[in-house]
Design brief:
single chain, mainly alpha, 65% helix, elongated
Amino acid sequence: MKKLVLPADSKEVQMEYHLGKIKLLESELNRLTILEHPRQIQSLCCKIMHIKRLLAKIRPDKK
């Protein structure tokens, strides 16, 4: 298994890393069916929500 590299400290790099991770998880999510993989879907959704919360901390909404 390939070892993941942690993102650098800059906000742009962190955002790029997390957005890429979300895209990867969403593509995996699109291949699953609710009747055959409910637990995997739940797990992926939780991971996506967690990453989106991290993104919100990195880039607070501008008003």
